[in-house]
Design brief:
The protein has nine helices and twelve strands. The protein has helices at residues 9-15, 20-26, 34-42, 68-74, 108-120, 138-144, 158-167, 205-208, 228-239; strands spanning 2-3, 28-32, 46-52, 62-66, 83-88, 99-103, 125-128, 152-155, 171-175, 181-182, 192-197, 213-216. It is elongated and about 65 Å long. The chain is 32% helix and 23% strand. It has two domains: 2-88, Ribosomal protein L30/S12 (60s Ribosomal Protein L30, Chain: A, 2-Layer Sandwich), CATH 3.30.1330; 99-239, Alpha/beta knot, CATH 3.40.1280.10. By secondary structure, it is α/β, with parallel strands linked by helices.
Length: 240
């Protein structure tokens, strides 16, 4: 049976998951496209799929077949994929290993890029400040390309967590283009946490003051600054 009404109660509830309020209430979120659906399935997070009529998938999961108009009404894209997955949010784990701390990031694309780089360069846990963009924002989910399923990501009060990390023997680094040390001269020993800041304002002073060491990326004088996603990727590569 193919569902063809955009006003169906189930479809309306699924559509609401494009809003943070309902993602928080239900502890669910959406992924779009077969790649992300399969990544969620492999991690045991996929609850069901919404599939355009006459399409097929090669794994077993609860499936609702719908018309193009219905899937378009759910999708956050102008040109929707033929498959959308309803997923449960990943459970947060204890902080361990190498840590990346993000202070007030607002751009979904930047967060997605950083998550991909964090997985690539051996970060085990990402700590998001409470005012960082929602991890399950559709643009964040798309830009991670499924890497959000492969790393522990938690949302916490940064001051509390940074102090707790220092008590556990972590060395905490933050970026500072004025008072920092060239990253090429930073020697990493033992457990570390790196703090990266907001796109426009950088790391907040009260957070920066908790760091043990400040660093910067040496650049050509013609370049005033780097995008935070690019800068984070470079720093994580150097630390790896």
């Amino acid at each position: 049976m193919t569902m063809d009404s955009v006003d169906n109660k189930k479809i309306k509830n699924i559509r609401k998951l494009n809003q943070k309020k309902y993602r928080d209430e239900t502890n669910e979120f959406l992924v779009e496209g077969i790649h992300l659906v399969k990544e969620a399935y492999k991690e045991g997070l996929l609850k069901e799929v919404i599939l355009e009529e006459n399409e097929e998938i090669d794994f077993k999961v609860d499936t609702t077949y719908v018309t193009y108009n219905v899937i378009k009404s759910i999708s956050s894209l102008d040109t929707p994929y033929k498959i959308i997955g309803v997923c449960k949010k990943k459970e947060e784990k204890e902080i361990n290993g190498n840590v990346l701390i993000l202070d007030g990031l607002q751009d979904p694309g930047n967060l997605g890029t950083i998550i991909r780089s964090a997985v690539a360069f051996n970060v085990d846990t990402i700590i998001l400040s409470k005012d960082t963009v929602d991890l399950y924002n559709p643009k964040v989910v798309r830009s991670t390309q499924g890497m959000n399923f492969h790393i522990n990501i938690i949302r916490r009060d940064l001051e509390h967590e940074i102090n707790a990390l220092k008590e556990k023997g972590y060395t905490v680094y933050s970026t500072d283009v004025i008072n920092g040390k060239n990253i090429k001269n930073v020697k990493v020993n033992g457990k570390y946490a790196i703090i990266m800041g907001n796109e426009g304002n950088g790391v907040r002073e009260n957070i920066k003051n908790l760091s043990d060491e400040k660093l910067y990326i040496k650049m050509n004088n013609d370049c005033e600054s780097l995008n935070v996603g690019v800068a984070t990727s470079i720093i994580l590569y150097e630390f790896s």
